[in-house]
Specification:
The protein has helices spanning 3-42, 46-70, 100-105, 117-120, 126-131, 140-152, 177-185, 237-256; strands spanning 75-79, 90-93, 111-115, 135-136, 156-159, 189-197, 216-221. With 279 residues, it is an alpha/beta fold. The protein has a 7-stranded mixed beta sheet with strand order 1-7-6-2-5-3-4, sandwiched between helices. It is globular and about 65 Å long.
């Protein structure tokens, strides 16, 4: 690509990124102030409200990703997403970018997640997040209990074991919260590997700092990780949690081509398993 074409492409992607973020922000306000309250008022009970709000969020995510692709902000490919269709799954994913939750939520009409406590204080997003049954990370003593309630209700739960966005090229660091959730629920884990090249919307990026080339996301859903293959009957749950966490670390590190230092498996605690909404 010639120099002027490359500069034009770069400028157009900055513009499309700005448009997508502006549309996302405006739509969040409109949907949160108008549409979600209508869903709430027209629902006969909390369970119906939760299903309707989550489905609306799912459609919203699909719209935003479709717009971003059409405007040339990004491209993406999906593999094995049919595995996300089964209800009541514990979905674990690595977390390279700000919009990872959109790719997974766009494939799952009914999925719960853990969100930052600050988002639940947001005047526009707080009420819809509560209506959707999203779990705040502000009460660690009740966090696993609330996650179990989501899974036992037949809903899937999305968890980012890293707890925040990863640093490109650096070894992953995983918390033990997802392992404790899986052990308490007695459920398998469904891994989702997310790769973005070149890196974009990382923890250190601002929205207008777009990469030199259009970023491409590859989202791959793997085979379920069977909890029974990792747990030794009768051993303390803390030991099992470390083993499950180590397996997740090895799994994602191998697929991302990253080293997996042994010390990383002991870095996390069950008190802060994820930060899925805006890490």
């Amino acid at each position: 690509m010639s120099g002027w074409r490359q500069r034009l492409d770069y400028a157009s992607r900055i513009a499309s990124t700005g448009l997508c973020f502006a549309t996302f922000g405006l739509a969040c306000v409109v949907v949160s102030v108008v549409w979600y309250p209508l869903l709430r008022l027209s629902s006969p009970d909390e369970a119906t409200t939760r299903r309707r709000v989550r489905h609306c969020t799912h459609v919203f995510y699909r719209f935003i990703l479709g717009m971003a692709r059409r405007l040339g902000m990004l491209s993406f490919e999906l593999h094995g997403v049919e595995r996300l269709a089964a209800p009541g799954q514990l979905v674990v994913a690595n977390h390279p970018s700000l919009i990872d939750v959109l790719f997974i939520g766009a494939q799952m009409p009914q999925v719960g997640c853990i969100v930052k406590e600050s988002l639940q204080r947001n005047p526009f997003l707080g009420a819809p997040m509560r209506w959707a049954g999203y779990i705040p990370n502000s009460t660690p003593e009740h966090l696993i209990e609330n996650c179990l309630a989501t899974l036992r209700a037949g809903d899937s739960l999305l968890v980012f074991p890293e707890g925040t966005r990863s640093v490109p090229g650096q070894p992953l660091k995983m918390k033990r919260g997802p392992a404790h959730i899986a052990l308490a629920a007695g459920c398998d884990l469904l891994p989702v590997t997310i790769v973005c090249h070149p890196s974009a919307l990382t923890k250190s990026d601002v929205w207008y700092r777009v990469p030199a080339h259009r970023p491409h996301w590859c989202v791959s859903v793997g085979e379920p990780i069977r909890l029974a293959d990792l747990v030794v009957p009768g051993e303390p749950r803390s030991v099992s949690a470390r083993r499950v966490t180590a397996h997740l670390l090895d799994y994602f590190s191998a697929r991302l081509g990253l080293p997996a230092p042994p010390s990383a498996t002991s870095a996390g605690t069950a008190s802060a398993p994820v930060d899925s909404a805006a890490a």
